[in-house]
Amino acid sequence: MTKKHWSITLAATLASSSLLYGNLFTTVAAHAATPASQGTIIDGLFEEPANLNPILGPDQTFSNIVETTMFSNLFTVTPQNQLLPNLATVVPTTTNGGISKNGLTYTFHLKPNAKWSNGQPVTSKDVWITYKIITNPLVNAVSTLGWTDVASFQTVNAKTFVIHLKKPDPSFIDNVFSGNLPGILPYSVFGKMSPKNVNTATFNHAPTVSDGPFKFVSWVPGASITVTANPYWYGPKPKSKEILFKIIPSQDTLLTNAQAHALNVWYFDPIEAVPQIQAIPGATLHFANQPSFEMAVVNVKNPILANVKVRQALEMAINRQAIVQDIWKGHAKLLAADQPAMAWSYNPNLKPYPYNPTESKKLLAQAGWKMGANGYLQKNGKTFTLVYSTTAGNAYREATERLLQFWLKQVGIQLVIRNYPANEFFGTVLPSGKGWDLGEFEYGDSTDPTFGPYQLFTSMGAQNFGQYNNPQVDKLFAQQSVLTSLAQRKAIMNKVETIFHQQLPALWYYAPQQIDTTIGMTGYVPNPWSVDTWNCYDWALTK
Amino acid sequence: MFSFIIRRLLQSIPVLLGISLLLFFMMHAIPGGPLAMYDHEPGMTKELLAQLKANFGLNKPLWVQYFNWLGGALQGNFGYSFSYGVPALQMVLQRMPATLELMLSSFVIAVILSFVIGVFSALRQYSIWDYLLTILSYIGVAMPTFWLGLMVLVLFAVKLQWFPVGGMSTPGQAFSLSNQVWHAILPVSILALYLVAHESRYVRSSMLEVLGADYIRTARSKGLFPSVITWKHALKNALLPVVTVMVMDGAYLFGGALVTETIFSWPGMGRLFIQAITQDDYPVIMVVISLLSVIIVLANILADVLYAVLDPRVQFD
Amino acid sequence: MAIATEPTVTKTFSIGTSNQQRMIKRIFRNKITIIATCFLILVALSAIFAPWIAPYTLNTPDLNAMLAPPSSVHLMGTDDVGIDLFTEVLYGGRISLMIGLSSALIAVMIGGAIGSIAGYFGGTVDAVLMRLTDVGLSVPLLFVILGLVAVLGPSPTTIVEVISLTSWMYPARIIRSRFLYLKSLDYVTATKTVGCRNGRIIFSHIMPNAVAPLIVNTTLLVGQAIVLESVMSFLGAGVQPPNISWGYLLNQAQSYLTSAPWLAIFPGLMIFLVVLCINVLGDAVRDAFDASYTLEGGRS
Questions:
Q1: Which B residues 249-268 touch A at CB under 8 Å?
Q2: Range with the largest mean pLDDT of A493-507, B111-125, C278-292
Q3: 6-45 in C: which are within 8 Å (CB) of A?
Q4: Is the dihedral of CA C180, C186, C187, C192 positive or negative?
Q5: More confident position, A467 or C15
Q6: Average pLDDT over residues A408-412
Q7: Yes or no, beta carbons of C3 and B29 under 8 Å apart
Q8: At what angle do helices C262-295 and C246-253 cross, to 10 degrees?
Q9: Which parts of the sequence belong to the Solute-binding protein family domain (chain A) (predicted)?
Q10: In CATH, what class is B88-310?
Q11: Which end of chain A, N or C, is less surrounded by CB atoms within 10 Å?
């Protein structure tokens, strides 16, 4: 579930794309006797959220960051990728009877003390109205994934409800009650609202009724959003009184804010800024592995690239180890296939291709390419030229391109660089499958890591930009999708990963770390499976 | 004069319509589109995408969309922002005061300074001062705003800590004029700098030219005091091309505001515009563009009126 | 001394030399002008002969020398992949000078033509052309960049087209305002009654007097065009490696403004110096123009 920052601002900023998918904070066992909430934590936001309605699109990381301070969902994913109950009392499983044997019926119980910020209890009615609104076609919902599998919603009592599915969905809870959605909606606000008014409701910009550790105070358009501790929240008392989200739409200005100690949190720092952040007194850098992968998708519609030997030659002609070491300063991990080590579908037996220009040249020669007089390979009178595209205005990608251009020239391949603003790149260029041969971008896994590669590299996938078509892969994905045993799915995905490693539907690069900075505060724990405000009640200013 | 203004205002109607039509189609021709943000969301299907398209009214033929927009716009209804879900006009109007504050103060400062500098260096043509001011003004032209703005932030906000690192006021604090001014100094200076650099060149050149004209020489030979000559005769005649440039700069200021607002986290409409463009938020783009074109058209009418005021020999036909 | 000397009216007739020679002499009367011209020639030559002068091969990264500050090994330091900046600045001059000069000239020519026709003929012609200028002014730059590049694809030619298409409105309005004023003067009326053709009046009688603000505009445009190209690079619409321009370098420097300031300083300095020198030259040309015109008695 990619969540790109869609901003590419005209001024000096890099749209550092970090792909998270959002959700919640945890129910941590009561922190006994915490002192009164104190102080205001200032968070820098690179992008202003479009709205603060947790179920409304577009899907933006920065909306989720703010929403997560105010809204709770039924479950929370921890940084260790563990599902914990939040508004719910227990995670339903087949063992505890919460999920029926056939995987079609789920029973949920809400915490008796879960309340909205107006003092009313959180009830099954709230979940029901959330379901009704998300699945209404007139609502521009952030994601209907999982919800569309619901056959019926049955309210048992104020705190218990049952959901029947049309077909078994092992990712149902992840997708619906924890994964992509920061929270549920209050029936008191939306119960009587006509669905077509949901997209433009005042609640979206002033969510006065919420059920998280903080509640809404104000939103000054373009400038800041303020939330304050919610006295009705069932969980531990937040350690800080307020969080003030300052909208600072330039990474350079975010850096100067950090240097001037004018903020406490700066999310998704560009790798280029790390040496300067390290020089800030009192700043803590957080490097967190995240379940995402950077790659260059291969457009196999280009007959040159349809040959797997050529793809392997390309992978070996690129010194990916050097990119990781020198551009990323080691804050990224080289990949052998798409999945990073933290995904359960990762295949540890695969080793990344070595940097080996000699072998690369050999493979290219086998594919019939001969060195021409212009210093580039030729075949049938044509020069080996590839068009490389990615998002414009992104420093590490542009640096990568310059290196690639150099390395590929060493083996006789001409690389033409053609970059686009993010909206054009993802909205038009990649999906069209035209005008590019290699398209570099980062993809973020969801808690279900089979979802991404299914979308990207199967003939059924909605984001199969490179038109990769491998019937064997399609079959394996179909097989694993109906299994509920993780061990069985893992065995199948290992096969898929092996094929991806050998076949290279994309040139595998690396899994970059997420970089965040905090200054003068404690309690910040990056959560690669959620957003970093997941435990914002634990944040406290030092001194 | 009065009938001239009326005629010009009437002429502006087809111009504004033309601009809106041209930009509407250009906007839709730029690749990407508002649905790109939804495109690659998990669980997005062709049907859902089609539904979204219908929700946004993007499924109709382009010319129908244009006339729908125009019909609404004429009644003051510019539609809802695709990404924010609030009336686009309201969004823009909310951000406008911030931008106007930035642009107007920079403009006034720039006009005053560029006159002082331009006249001064023209009077002392080829002196050390003239060269120095020339060099300084070209620094203003050649240094990109994004670079200069950031350097100023690093120096005055981080190193010296004299000024805040952006924003329009200290968040969470009650409104106070001194606080606003304190926040405005750096961005206003940066925005004004480019204008000063640019406009003082025109003032200087115009002044030089007029100073070389016969009637000034005559005046001088008659023994009129230099200062009287300079201010009364020369300046008035030097104004004509300068007024043109300054009026146009008023419109161009908006371009500078885009960058300045971004670097100084200024919650204005320039930044909103950039964001709208990167997200293809059509309703917001159209509001900003309509507003800008109205301002530009009016400013140019003003410029033509000013010509006549400054020089009665200019006729309107 | 309140009023400086007026070089524009130095009446030194040099009998026997032709008009052109006199002009050239006047242009280079000033030492500063000579220095500026020499510098421009130097930059142009080093751009042309970059392959022979450059200390390194273009586009050759050295990962052991990333972001190295200026030193005797790398005169202007290196960029984020260890490419020698001096080499890039030398090569960058080729495209930047080409883009800067040609787009400024094209913009001034389009604008000059539209402005002078509008100002001279007035009436409906003026109204139509000036409303066209209003339209031009109202189209945001970002739109033109994104739209044109999407249609034409990025290339140095597209960049010149984009820049000239977004910059002709200034010269148009400036020239028009001059024409409005000048055509009402006695000498123009006189030439009209004598039966001069419109073309001749525009080019020989009004234009020379309208040229001063245009020269300022041209010199400013050269700098603006070079800087604008960096904005286009940021959107992926500018020059892309293996081609290098100063605008590309400035854009690349954005991520390292405080950590590696040399990346912005050197290309910025080159743009600044080139624009400054072009201006000095432009001023000298204008002064010479003024003087020669005064001598020939064309002024009212």
A1: 258-259, 262-265, 267-268
A2: A493-507
A3: none
A4: positive
A5: A467
A6: 96
A7: no
A8: 140
A9: 98-459
A10: mainly alpha
A11: C
Residue with tokens 């291969």: A298
Note whether B147 contacts C127, CB cutoff 8 Å. no
Q: Per-residue pLDDT averaged across A230-234, rounded?
A: 94
Report, as an integer, the average pLDDT of A412-432.
Answer: 91
Contacts C300 to B, Cβ<8 Å: 214
**Looking at the predicted structure, is the pLDDT value of residue C117 above 60?**
yes
List of chain C residues whose C-beta atoms are within 8 Å of the C-beta of residue A327: 80-81
Percent of chain A with pLDDT over 90: 73
Q: Complex ipTM, two decimals?
A: 0.87
CATH assignment at residue A217:
3.40.190.10
Residue B38 at interface with chain A, using a CB cutoff of 8 Å? yes
Task: Give A440-470 as a DSSP string.
Answer: EEEEE--SSTTHHHHHHHSTT-TT-TT----
Q: What confidence category does residue B66 fall into, taking pLDDT thresholds of 50, 70 and 90?
A: very high
Q: Pick from C141, C185, C212: which is nearest to B205 by CB?
A: C212
Q: Under 8 Å CB-to-CB from C263, ≥6 apart: which residues?
A: C77, C79, C85, C249, C252, C253, C256
DSSP type of residue A344: T
Neighbours of chain C (3+ CB pairs under 8 A): A, B
Which residues form the domain of A106?
A: 40-282+520-541
Q: Is residue A8 part of a domain?
A: no
Same-domain pairing of A250 and A348: no
Give the count of Cβ contacts less than 8 A between chain A and C.
78
Total structural domains in chain A? 2
Residue C221 has pLDDT above 70, yes or no: yes
pLDDT band at A17 (very low <50, low <70, confident <90, very high): very low
The neighbours of chain B, by the rule of 3 or more Cβ pairs under 8 Å, are A, C
B45 CB-near residues (< 8 Å, 6+ apart): A462
Tell me the pLDDT tens digit for each residue of B185-210. 999 999 998 888 888 888 888 888 77
How far is it, in rounded angstroms, from Cα C274 to Cα C282? 12
Query: Is B151 in the A-facing interface, judged by CB distances under 8 Å?
Result: no
For residues A527 and A449, state if they share a domain: no
pLDDT tier at C18 (50, 70, 90 boundaries)? low
User: Taking a contact as any Cβ pair under 8 Å apart, which residues of chain A between 416 and 445 contact chain C?
Assistant: 416-421, 424
- The candidate with the shortest Cα–Cα distance to A267, out of A531, A537, A538, is A531
Domain ranges (residues) in chain B: 2-74, 88-310
Averaged over C207-226, what is the pLDDT? 81
Residues of chain A contacting residue B51, judged by C-beta atoms under 8 Å apart: 137
Do A367 and A401 fall within a single domain?
A: yes
Q: How far apart are CA A230 and CA A243, in angstroms?
A: 12
Cis link prior to C242 (omega < 30° from 0)? yes
* Residues in A touching B59 (Cβ below 8 Å): none
The fraction of chain A above a pLDDT of 70, given in percent, is 93
Instruction: Inform me whether the C-beta atom of residue A252 falls under 8 Å from chain C C-beta atoms.
Output: yes
Nearest-neighbour CA in chain B from A21: distance (Å): 10
CATH number at residue A456: 3.10.105.10
Q: Is B30 on the interface with A (CB under 8 A)?
A: yes
pLDDT of residue A485: 81
Q: Residue C294's pLDDT is what?
A: 46
Residue B35 to residue A247, Cβ atoms within 8 A: no
Residue A355 one-letter amino acid: Y
Report yes or no on A13 lying in a domain.
no
CB atoms A402 and C236 under 8 Å: no
Contacts of C143 in chain B (CB under 8 A): 23, 26-27, 30, 277
Domain check: are A209 and A309 in the same one? no
Question: Looking at per-residue confidence, does B182 or B209 come out higher?
Answer: B182
For the whole model, what pTM was predicted?
0.87
**Contact between residue B164 and residue B157 where contact means Cβ atoms under 8 Å apart:** yes
What is the arithmetic mean of pLDDT over C204-229? 81
Alpha carbons C189 and A261: distance in angstroms, whole number: 68
pLDDT number for residue B220: 65
